[in-house]
Specification:
58% of the residues lie in helices and 18% in strands. It is α/β, with parallel strands linked by helices. The longest helix has 47 residues. It comes from Cryobacterium serini. May be involved in recombinational repair of damaged DNA.
Length: 570
């Protein structure tokens, strides 16, 4: 349950703390005082979309905080811990701020968290009903949801199985339809891929081959120049086979070594130089040998080899120009293209497999949908009977609620059932759909009756009703107040109301009080007791909080509510 709600700079509320606690809390106040901001604050704490327009004028941000008392071993506590938050014993604190620019921050158990986490906690903490929910009750989806909630865990489990099969069926069917529709296109793609892969395999390019061939072509294209240069260099280095005995590097180094060697004994500085010249002679001799080897390796038939290289380069160039990434992309395409071709060539097998899977899932969906229908039909009878009994306690003694189930045109994510709630306002009248014929007051009471009945099978710790009594007055309003008080015996109930007949049954009465200094309106919240509560009740009844007759009527209502409370506890 919500133990306390704190609001700052939200709407017209400057700062207020609402002590809530267990049982039935009524929130009243003058029009424009900000009663609705209480529901807005709860909505923010439960993940509603942040609206910068709710920030109090002239303030940088609004802030709301709620203190809940929950079971530390509950699913809510586990979700809080998953989000990085924690509890203080059984106490959970949720917070939300909204800046005037529209930015929002959420706090869960003392840690920052996405607002979506608040939304995850919503269904396990609070059910909020406002006038928009009364309108929503007219929709087929809301009526089906109400029936499913009443049907309980058995239907919820089966609906989960159905939805799993339904989504799988739909996914397989989409893939199957795509394969069949694109069969010709995919066949053409396979033919084009096969031709491209055959061309690459025929050319059989190797990584780095184009660069290597470029180097060979450069060498072969300058073969004669290379031979002449190498021969000249070899002759200059070592001319031992030169008939003219022209001086060369090897001979010159040997002459230098002998010249120094003759006098080396006379100076200790010369032997190292003699050794260095001797080593240089060895190095130059090696170079001469390598030049001879290089000359021997020059291909005598270089022209033919160059032709072969140029032909190969042309072949590779034609292939490379077909791919933006050149030859490397063509080589890589062998793997990716082969994988894609394998996928396309297996279309027939895939179509056959998907057809079998889709048909099996269609049959499973059909069977599960039929089981859902059976559960819904059984629950529909009970829901109608129990809500009808509740309507009798809400000053609609002759009203009957009927739950009608028809087969829809096709399967959906919730089955094949179309659920309609029909209201027969009195005996002999034609039942009419809530979507078309129910008044606002009737909708208010039907919605309350449904929530009371559903709470018996799908309990919720806290109910929040925003003017559920709209369009209701007199005896009907008293019965709504009485029923809310009974609901509050097993759940926390918070009601924003403008009717004294409803507020009288609350064990905790809060008043949103409006003050004005001529420019800025601010509201605060007071807990009403004794004469203050009687005065507020009189204001709700007649608009005259100081009226003697109004005060008498207010005290009479409070006595009636207290008598009901005493009787219900016996």
């Amino acid at each position: 349950m919500i133990d306390e709600l704190f609001i700052r700079d939200l709407g017209v509320i400057a700062e207020a703390t609402l002590p809530l606690g267990p049982g039935f809390t009524a929130v009243t106040g003058e029009t424009g005082a900000g009663k609705t901001m209480v529901v807005t604050a709860l909505g923010l704490l439960l993940g509603d979309r942040a609206d910068a327009g709710t920030v109090r004028q002239g303030q940088p941000q609004s802030f709301v905080q709620g203190r809940w008392v929950i079971d530390p071993a509950s699913a809510v506590a586990d979700r809080v811990r998953d989000a990085g938050g924690d509890l203080d014993g059984p106490e959970l604190i949720l917070g939300r701020s909204v800046s005037s620019e529209g930015r929002s921050r959420a706090m869960v158990g003392g840690r920052g968290a996405p607002a979506s986490v608040l939304g995850d906690l919503r269904n396990d903490l609070v059910v909020v009903h406002g006038q928009s929910d009364q309108v929503r009750l007219r929709s087929a989806a809301a009526q089906r949801d109400a029936l499913d909630r009443f049907a309980g865990p058995e239907l919820a489990a089966m609906l989960g199985d159905y939805q799993h099969a339904f989504h799988r069926w739909q996914a397989n069917q989409v893939d199957l339809d795509r394969l069949i529709t694109e069969r010709d296109l995919r066949a053409r793609e396979a033919d084009e891929l096969r031709a491209a892969l055959t061309e690459i395999e025929t050319v059989a390019p190797q990584p780095g081959e184009d660069a290597e061939l470029g180097e060979r072509a450069e060498r072969l294209g300058n073969l004669e120049e290379l031979r002449l240069a190498a021969e000249q260099a070899r002759q200059l280095v070592s001319a031992e086979d030169n008939p003219d005995n022209a001086p060369d590097v090897v001979a010159l180094l040997e002459a230098a070594r002998r010249a120094l060697d003759r006098v080396a004994a006379h100076d200790v500085a010369l032997p190292p130089l003699v050794a260095a010249i001797s080593n240089a002679g060895f190095v130059v001799a090696d170079i001469a040998a390598e030049l001879s080897s290089y000359l021997a390796g020059l291909d005598a038939d270089g022209a033919r080899e160059l032709e072969i290289v140029q032909e190969r380069r042309a072949e590779l160039g034609i292939l490379a120009r077909k791919y933006p990434g050149g030859l490397e992309e063509a080589i890589g395409f062998l793997d990716s293209g082969s994988a894609r071709l394998l996928e396309l060539d297996s279309d027939s097998d895939r179509i056959e497999q998907l057809s079998a899977e889709a048909e099996a899932d269609r049959k499973l969906v059909t069977d599960l949908a039929a089981a859902l229908t059976a559960l819904r039909r059984a629950a529909a009878v009970q829901l109608g009977v129990r809500v009808t009994a509740e309507l009798g306690a809400l000053a609609m003694p002759d009203a009957v609620l009927l739950v009608e189930i028809e087969a829809g045109p096709e399967f959906s994510v919730t089955g094949i059932d179309l659920v309609r709630l029909l209201l027969q306002p009195h005996a002999g009248a034609e039942p009419r759909a809530l979507a078309r014929g129910a008044s606002g007051g009737e909708l208010s009471r039907v919605m309350l009756a449904i929530e009371v009945v559903i709470n018996a099978t799908d309990p919720v710790p806290t109910f929040v009703f925003d003017e559920i009594d709209a369009g209701v007055g007199g005896a009907a309003a008293i019965e709504i107040g009485r029923r809310l008080a009974r609901l509050a015996e097993t759940a926390q109930v918070i009601v924003v109301t403008h009717l004294a007949q409803v507020a009288a049954f609350a064990g905790n009465h809060l008043s949103v009080v409006k003050d004005s200094d001529g420019s800025v309106t601010a509201s605060s919240v007071r807990q009403l007791l004794g004469d203050d509560r009687a005065a507020e009740m009189a204001r709700l009844l007649s608009g005259l909080p100081d009226s003697k007759s109004g005060l008498e009527h207010a005290r009479e209502l409070l006595d009636l509510a207290q008598s009901h409370s005493r009787l219900s506890k016996k």
